[in-house]
Amino acid sequence: MIEETIIRISIWALPVLAAIVFHEVAHGWVANRLGDPTAARMGRLTLNPLAHIDLFGTIILPLLLIVARAPFLFGYAKPVPVNFYNLYHPKRDMIWVALAGPLTNILLALGSVLILKFLGALEFSPDSSYAPYLLAVLNPVYLMAKNSVVINVVLAVFNAFPIPPLDGGRVLVGVLPEPQSSALARVEPYGFLIILVLLMSHVMDAVMGPAVYFLLRLFDGIL
After folding, report:
1. Within a 13 Å sphere around the CA of 37, how many CA atoms are in the beta-carbon half?
2. CA 101, CA 201: separation in Å to the nearest integer?
């Protein structure tokens, strides 16, 4: 039981870490390109996970989900700081900064699918002397790539939900005209409480499920 849990953690940890770190760095990188150097000045435009780890969101929450054998895995990193007033065109550029995270996760999912396709095309004799060693390396890589597809799709869809402070909410704030835009922006302090209620009532599942299923089928079609 303990050995199985350790194996599950090992093949889930790297994909989760990569998904959330790349997601946050993408926000900061696009913000920096569009006029806000806040993340760059704070040393957050780095792929070093230590700069992004949130004790609960990056470590405790994923571990709890793994141990509980949850059907999905989720986590988050410390949000990259963005001062939207520094952007060249705050209302418009906010949309691009927000979209950067989910789009990065979709690209990571696509990259993982291509890795799976490459591994599936490999051919070698199972009777060869090096086969056990090759399998010992390729099997974990295959499982991590497979998990990466699911993790990145779930993360992209979850963050696209149109409630601030999620990325979809910030996109909607940037798209809506006034006064609707300001009214939605005022929801942000209560956003995570609303999301928690939606999760507990399974409303979020009903909304996210079809989108996650569609993307997973789409990527499965590439394979």
Report:
1. 1
2. 26
